[in-house]
Specification:
About 45% of the residues lie in helices and about 15% in strands. With about 250 residues, it is an alpha/beta fold. The chain has one domain: Rossmann fold (3-Layer(aba) Sandwich). It is globular and about 45 Å long.
Length: about 250
Amino acid sequence: MISATVPRAGTELSGQTVLVLGGSAGIGLATARHARAQGAEVILVARNAERLRHAAADAGARHCAAFDVGDRDALREFFANLPGPVHHVMVNSGWPFYGPVLGLTYEEARTAISYHALQAVEVARRSRDKMPPGGSLTFMGGTGARRISSGAGVLSVIGGTMTALIAVLAVELAPLRVNMIAAGFVDTPMSASLLGDGLQARRDDLQARLPIQRVVTAEDVASLAIHLMGNTALTGAVYDIDGGQQLIP
């Protein structure tokens, strides 16, 4: 059953297939719901099989598969066994890394800095043979590269790396389109798990200070993701969605 929070059903993506990697909750699940409401067939991938099963039923997904997108062999096998073309791929998998760059060990730094970029390269590699011209890949990222902070420097490094990679992939994969969504705080289950008891205080603070006077939701991000899929003039760019968070101290 499609959630009542999605917009009125349309036909923008009718006859197309949308694959959401990391689609069992939050932004990924909201994007799947919106895609379904726009007439698309939906395929979901996530690590947690039980949560994925519920998400697939919620979004009306045609198919779902439980595995870690960071597992290169599993990812290769999954794409090899897809029965038909995929028109749009949304990558919402992975976990954010926090902390100062020099506070990480060598192994931690290598994992943090390379994880998202290498995953993006592998998804792009596997997607290109399954996508028709004009298809799109949309990667989720953050606005960490917009403000340099010694306390969260690794986010800035990852953001800068991904920004360059998106442009490179857009050129190498053309006429496929590649974009990234850079989000600030988004009120999702992941945010709840990261902030714990501090979640409500964070919501209250942002609601009071953001120019939009409310927090950004998963549905807000999903609407942007669907727009990037449908607008065939957009490629090689990063689109911020943070409710004006970068504009406040």
